[in-house]
Amino acid sequence: MKVFIAGMDGYLGWALAVYLGSRGHDIYGVDAFLRRKWVNDEGESHSISPIAAMPERLQAFQEQIGRPAWFREGNLCDFEFIRSALAEASPDAIIHFGEQPSAPFSMIDREHCILTHENNMFGTLNVLYAMAECCPSAHLIKLGTMGEYGTPNVDIPEGFFTIEYKGRTDTLPFPRQAGSWYHQTKVHDTNNIMFACKVWGLRSTDLMQGVVYGTRLSEMKDDQRLLTRLDIDGLFGTAVNRFCAEAVIGHPLTPYGAGGQTRSFINIRDSMRCIELVLENPAANGEYRVFNQFTEVLSVVQLAEKVKAAGEKANLEVTVHPIRNPRVESESHYYNPDNSKFRALGLDPVHMDDALPGMLVDLSRWRDRIESKKNCLIPKVEWRESAPGVPVGHAGSGA
Predict the structure, then answer these.
(1) Which of 21, 59, 143, 271 has the greatest number of CB atoms lying within 10 Å of its CB?
(2) Which of 75, 92, 97, 189 is nearest to 131 (CA)?
(3) What gap in Å lies between CA 190 and CA 342, rounded to an integer?
(4) Is 149 designated active site?
(5) Which of 215, 250, 227, 254 is nearest to 367 (CA)?
(6) DSSP letter at 281?
(7) Which residue from 30, 377, 66, 86 is spatially nearest to 236, judged by alpha carbons?
(8) What is the mean pLDDT of residues 168-194?
(9) First CA to last CA distance, the chain
């Protein structure tokens, strides 16, 4: 299958290229390398795993996988670029990872909010228009986020639910309650893709993915050039990866606030496997569907406890020191999302307890790189301060 990956240089994009390439798929990819720039400039950090430049990555890909990967550098916000790329590639499937992925980044100030909206929404609209023109039969697999749903006080279905109101019944999109400007752009993407499928007959699977963790795939072998990136800074680092990095250097684990925030999580290998399952079981023409892509539901405190236990088994001294929550969010809430679709397709998930020891081994090899950026572990962006004229501590839940 010819698979086109938008955002191929990223944490998930490069891992997916290696994973699917190892399974016989022809890989086509584009990237503007903005993630590298943003982490360096805005996060004042770098990938903890030492990642190669794209020419080296492509050389390693060809050597290890046995055939080349097609790649073009460019921005999805440039319509002529993405139209030309899709026309040249003529893919069977488009995997859309090419977005600004950080909630804290989007909350820095007005400029970063607007940048996130322009990059994510305009890029996605360009993909939809170029797809409709150049490869309308392709299957669009779009990376959404479980964060679109928020934390409602009812169970979370997979995209849609059936409701009865004033004696009438209908199946409607489940309400979205975004927690940041970044999450708002994902909600807009969902609405735009659903509309494009309706009016143009495109087909798409929208993956509401949980927080991804993990350092590598076995398909990367021992070739360092095939490693994917891993970030720990306050803008682009996520909780599990950050906690593991903290454990390795003896830094206290830093859950935000009371730590009762409960979210869904998935190992990077399961993330790749889920996309493979969707490729093998595509949406029908004109169909827009939603899969919730996660394997475990845990609170931030439970995450810290798991990393602490794994660290102690590895003879690391691990402590936990909660810090003030910079976000506006509920720290105690109901959370029960459904993920039955992937399980029905045969997903056999990796459990976090089994994955953490290997992550700690990898991160221990890169201890010096973590130490050099340990000041970036503590978040610097306040949700409350991003609102003009709103005093800190008076912006709602979690203040």
Answers:
(1) 271
(2) 92
(3) 19
(4) no
(5) 250
(6) S
(7) 377
(8) 98
(9) 50
Core vs surface per residue 298-318: b (16+ CB within 10 A) or e: bbbbbbbbbbbebbeeeebeb
From the candidates 182, 213, 256, 288, give the one annotated as an active-site residue.
182
Please tell me what DSSP assigns to residue 174.
P
Domain ranges of the chain: 2-383
Active site residue 213: no
Catalytic residue among 142, 186, 306, 341: 186
Nearest alpha-carbon partner for 150 in 263, 260, 267, 236: 263
Q: Write the CB contacts of 316 (distance below 8 Å, at least 6 apart in sequence).
A: 247, 248, 250, 360
When pLDDT is averaged across residues 233-258 and rounded to a whole number, the result is: 97
Q: Judge whether 176 and 147 are in contact, CB under 8 Å.
A: no
Can you give the length of the chain in residues?
399
Q: Which two tokens stand for residue 286?
A: 């004109």
Query: Is residue 301 within 8 Å of residue 388, measured between CB atoms?
Result: no
CA nearest 233: which of 108, 365, 385, 46? Answer: 46
| Type of residue at 152 | P
CATH topology of domain 2-383: Rossmann fold (3.40.50)
Where are the alpha helices (H) located in 42-122, listed in sequence order?
Answer: 54-65, 79-89, 103-106, 110-117
Q: What are 305-362's pLDDT values in tens digits?
A: 999 999 999 999 999 999 999 999 999 999 999 999 999 999 999 999 999 999 999 9
DSSP per-residue codes, 99-116:
S---HHHHTS-HHHHHHH
Classify strands 296-299 and 262-267 as parallel, antiparallel or unpaired: antiparallel
Task: Clarify whether 313 is annotated catalytic.
Answer: no
